[in-house]
Amino acid sequence: MGPDIGSDPGGSGTLAVLELLAEEAPQSRFEGLLSDRRRAGAGAAEIAELTRALELARAVQASAGRRQQREAALTALVDTAHDLTSPYDLDSLLRVITRRARRLLGFDMAWVSLDRPDGTGYVRTSEGETTDLNVGLEAGAGHGLGSMAQARRAPVWSADYLNDDTVPHGPGLDAVVRAEGLHAIIAVPLRHGETTLGALYGADRAVRRFTPDEIGLLFSLADLAAVAIEKARLLEQTREEVTELEWFGSRTNTTLTRVRYLWECHARMAGLVLDGANMSALARATADALDGVLQVRDPGGRPLVSTGELPADLDEEAVAKAALAVHADLLPVELPGDVWLAPVLAGAENLGVLVLHASAPLTVEDVRLLQMASQTVASLILIQRGMAAAEGPVHEELLQELLDRPNRSDRHLLERVRRLGIELDRPHVVVVARPEGGELGRAVAWASSYAYRMNGLKGVRRGCIVLVLPGSDASAAARQVSAELSPLLGHPVSTGAAGPSQGAPEVARVYAEAVRCLDALTALDGAGGTASLSELGFLGLLLSTDHDVEAFIGSTIGPVLEYDETRFTELARTLDAYFESGGSPTHAAEALHVHANTVSRRLDRIAELLGPLWQKPDRALEIQMALRLRKARQVLQERRAEAGQEVAGTA
Hints:
Elements: H1 12-23, H2 27-39, H3 44-84, H4 90-105, E1 109-115, E2 121-127, E3 138-140, H5 145-152, E4 156-158, H6 171-180, E5 184-192, E6 195-204, H7 212-248, H8 251-274, H9 279-290, E7 292-297, E8 303-306, H10 316-329, E9 333-335, E10 339-346, E11 349-358, H11 364-404, H12 411-419, E12 428-435, H13 440-454, E13 457-461, E14 464-470, H14 474-489, E15 493-501, H15 507-523, E16 530-532, H16 538-543, H17 549-567, H18 571-580, H19 585-592, H20 596-610, H21 617-650
Parallel strand pairs: 15-16
Antiparallel strand pairs: 1-2, 1-6, 2-3, 4-5, 5-6, 7-8, 7-11, 9-10, 10-11, 12-14, 12-15, 13-14
Helix pairs in contact: 1-2, 1-3, 2-3, 3-4, 3-7, 4-7, 8-9, 8-11, 9-11, 11-13, 17-21, 18-19, 19-20
């Protein structure tokens, strides 16, 4: 029972507040005092005194609560200090730190980023996450909450990170925050002496304003963690040094064993080549010996054989630059991420490059084996080239028959093609290449090897190399041929391409289109370039033997026509009016009997559908051609329909 406040007027309310404080009564009992006194008819002075007493009581309770929280936090911090003195390895220690941070401050998520020697940072461990975006995240250098905390050597925080422009942002952390649904974030530096080792982060999935006690507690935890991390690193370094000393005694025997293994691997590779193995078998043997993924690339950088997937984040631009370096230095070179490149050379001729993603750092002996493997690959390419030269007359004879007698359905001819492993019933493109200088004989020798490599046919006509290659992208095939052949000859190569063809009878037709593309390239003063029907635009339509008007219209203004059809709009009609008015939206609006703003909105939509460059002269010319062809086709269709109705009427 609480005190009988009604029997003691004049001060009993204040005494009742003290009694409730002593009892550590719940807040509802305090609030009931004021209601009871008002019902008892207390005066204004007494009510004011009781109200003040209740305010002071709440302050005392809050102060006591904070003191209890601090005592609990300090106790937990002492327990954490004991935990951190245990002999953990680094990863286990970091997991203890993030777990303690979450429990001490009630975070939804906590993580630790560590610095590398070059100043960049990365997230080493995390707890409470729901995605796989955080661990391994590159923290960068010089930006983000963690970098600011390390630079200031003081905590940095935000109650609602994504909506806070006063704190630094980084694309990696922003992506994690969005994916995890985080709001409040705090970062404190892991200080060790005059340097920092990284940063400790805490985060909540709700807006939260951190109190000074919470910030100070996390700062203390970070200082303890930094000492423990440095101790764990020194312990690991000591273990490695001891292991190295133990290993050094047996190094001589290990090296001899490794060298013996190296020569055995090289002998096995050479045996594969002599036994007639293909490039895939040789690449697999090399990859197994070096415990990695190997890719053989041609001089243009196109993969010929792969034993697996290279890293998705492989910097292809860096690989291309390194490929030039290895052919200049004639030695393998290492890229970040345990990626190695080795040149494939025959004398001074560039035959390609090996790209190896090793599962572990390579030893000196491993690098030597990679260099031997590149020499073996070069030997295999030269052997294949010789076989291609031996089969060259057969290929040329078959191609000549396909071009000269396109309607021939000789089963013996098709069987000869199949015996060479060439499946002409699948899509093939035709590339006609004309060297603009240099010896044609050298180009023909290259073409024989290239056709053999690509599983295609090769011939020579009108001083040009003719290649029938599997694939459906004629433009890409032309560019690839030019990219490989031009550096070899030291002169530009003009290439025309067409296709794809479906079946042996279509090879002659596609060849004729490729020749016309090459002739058009010459007429347009484009010697040394590449041309295909798709690249020539409406000129390709005129040069094509089948004149596929429907495909040209679809590829040029198809998105606009589809939009009109599905939404019952008039974008195509607006395009007509716009071009007929000389590109004036105002005059187009007058012709269409609509407001000028309507035309402007339609033109904006057209730009979204056709791309921002649709009004460039060459693109605009193709669009106008497509519009005229569509209009002419509609007129012809209407006339045919009218003629049909007249015939039906007279009948």
